[in-house]
UniProtKB/TrEMBL annotation:
Region (Disordered): 110-142
Swiss-Prot/TrEMBL GO biological process terms: translation
MF terms (GO), sorted A to Z: rRNA binding; structural constituent of ribosome
GO CC, alphabetical: ribonucleoprotein complex; ribosome
Family that this chain belongs to: Belongs to the bacterial ribosomal protein bS6 family.
InterPro entries: Ribosomal_bS6, Ribosomal_bS6_sf, Ribosomal_S6_plastid/chlpt, Transl_elong_EF1B/ribsomal_bS6
Organism, scientific name: Blastopirellula marina
Gene name linked to the record: rpsF
Protein name according to UniProt: Small ribosomal subunit protein bS6
């Protein structure tokens, strides 16, 4: 079966994350790797008040992870996340292969150098014309 890139958003128990950040986040990575997956990016997204209480928790730590995993293992990963005490909620989205590089670069905090040059406001031809105009203006002034 083919391996796909997935985006995983986890809402973690803020109390447990506050006591042991590397341990709680490491459990997420360990779950994916246990299923034979590869972690591409794993980082904290935000810590904020929840819209509604989840199991008595009013605050949650949002953890964003991009990983590569065979589609047949997703059911096992769903089950493992459901029984984890550290994970309050989770969501997995299969990513379009054309967007993976851009999403990972963004998650890592890098600017993606895509093919389009939308930042280029002028063309080289415009610069050449203005240079010629400047030369003519200098000659006319003499």
């Amino acid at each position: 079966m083919a391996a796909y890139v997935y985006e995983g958003m986890f809402i973690l128990d803020s109390n447990r994350y506050g006591k042991d950040p590397s341990g709680v986040s490491g459990k997420i990575n360990a779950l994916v790797e246990k299923m034979g997956g590869e972690i591409l990016v794993s980082r904290m997204w935000a810590e904020q008040r929840l819209a509604y209480p989840i199991d008595g928790h009013r605050r949650g730590t949002y953890w964003l992870t991009y990983f590569r995993l065979e589609s047949t293992k997703m059911e096992e990963l769903n089950y493992a996340c459901n029984i984890s005490d550290d994970i309050l909620r989770f969501l997995f989205i299969k990513q379009d292969p054309r967007l993976v590089d851009m999403l990972i670069a963004h998650a890592e905090g890098h600017e993606f150098a895509g093919d389009d040059d939308s930042d280029d406001t002028g063309s080289d031809d415009d610069e050449e014309v203005s240079s010629e105009d400047e030369e003519e203006a200098v000659e006319a002034a003499d």
